[in-house]
Amino acid sequence: MTYRRAAIPALVGGLLLTALLWWAGASANALHLPGTTDVIGGQAAAELQRWLTPWSYDPPASVQPGAEVSGGIGDTAGAASANYLALYTTAMQIRFGAVFAFFVLGALLLVRRLPPVRGRVPAALLALWAWGLVAGTLAVTVSAPWLIASGGHGSYRFLPQLSSVIASGRQVLVGAALVAAAVTVLAARVTAKGAGPLPQEVIPTRAARLAATVGTAVVALSLVVLSYQSVAAALQQISPNIGLLAEPGDLLRQWLLLGGWSGPGGTTPLGDWLLYRATDVLLLVVVWWALRRMPGLLTRATVPAMAVGAVCATVLGLLASQLLRMAMDGASLHWELLRLSGGIGEGVPAALTCGLVAGVAAAVTLRVAAGRTEPTDSAASGQATTRP
Q1: Are the beta carbons of 110 and 315 closer than 8 angstroms?
Q2: DSSP class per residue in 30-81
Q3: Is the Cβ–Cβ distance between 151 and 63 less than 8 Å?
Q4: Least enclosed by CB within 10 Å: which of 11, 77, 321, 332?
Q5: What is the pTM of this model?
C-alpha cells in the first residue's frame, strides 16, 4: 500500500483518538454533579475521576484563577496564577497535539507495511490498538514538563514528578485506542480496494524462529532480570545529586521494568507460585508468537517496521498478562471491576524501550539468518535440477 492510500486511515484514526480522549477529559465534570455518587458510588466516582483528570482541560484547584500563590500579594499573586493557568493550558494543547501526531506517524507505517487485507485484519487491528497506547504515553511524556511547571514546583524532585505524570491516564487510553484502531482498519480496507497485489517476502522458517527467539530474549531481560525485586530496588535507589536531574530512580523503573518478578506475599506452595508466574509466561508467549508471524505478515520486513511491530507485540503481551492477572485476582479476591482495572496499561514505557531493541535485534537476526539460508537453499535446488 502506498503512503497516499495509508495516510487517509491514519489521519482518521488520529483524529478519532484525539477526539475520544478530549471527550473523556471533558466528561470528568459530570462526576461532580449532584447525584453522581448515588448512582455509581463514591469510590467508583473517585476512581473514574483519577482516570479522566489527565485528559481534562479543567485545571486543578492549585492553578485556577483566585488560588493562593506562595509569596504573592494582590495583583502579583493574580498574575502568577494566570501564568500557571496558561502553562496548564499549553500542556494540554501539547498533549492532544502529540497524541494525534504520534498516532498518525505510527499508523502510517503500520497500515503501509501491514495493510488490513485478507489474512491480516486481526493483526493490523491489534497492532494499531497497541500503538494507540504508545502514542498516548508518548504524548503524556512530552507534555509533562509544562504540566509539572503549572503546579508551581517544577524544580522540586522533577524526575520523580515526571515519572508520576507519565504513569497517569493509561486506563482511558486502552478503550479509546481500541475504538480508534477499529475505525482505522475499516478506513484502510476501503482505501486498499483496487490497490493491486501486495508484495510478499519469502522468509525461511528457521530464520523467522531464530529472530523471534532473539527478540523475545530481549524482552525477557526486562521482565525477568531487571524486574527482579532486588535489581528493581537497586534501580529505584539511584539518586545522584545533579540538580534538576537528581533522583532518576523512579523514571528508570518506569522505562526499563515490564513488571515485578516476585512471588505473592507470604509463604505459598510451589503450585501457587507457578500460577502467579503464568502472566509472565503469557507475555513472553505472545511476544514470541507475534515476532514469529510478523515477517510473513509484513509486506517488507524492514528495520523500522520490525521495531514498531515489536513494540506493539510487547504492549499486546502486557495487556494479555494484565487481563489474566485481573481474572485471577477477581476470582480470588472478589474486587470491584474498577479497582481490578486500575493496573491496566502499566508498563507501556518499558514496552516501548524493550520493544524497540527487540525489534531491531530481530530484524538484524532475520537478515543474517535468511542470508545464510538462501545460498544453502539455492545450492540444494541447483543440485536437484541437475540430477538426471
Answers
A1: no
A2: GGGSTTHHHHH-HHHHHHHHHHHGGG-SSPPGGGSTT---TT--THHHHHHH
A3: yes
A4: 332
A5: 0.88
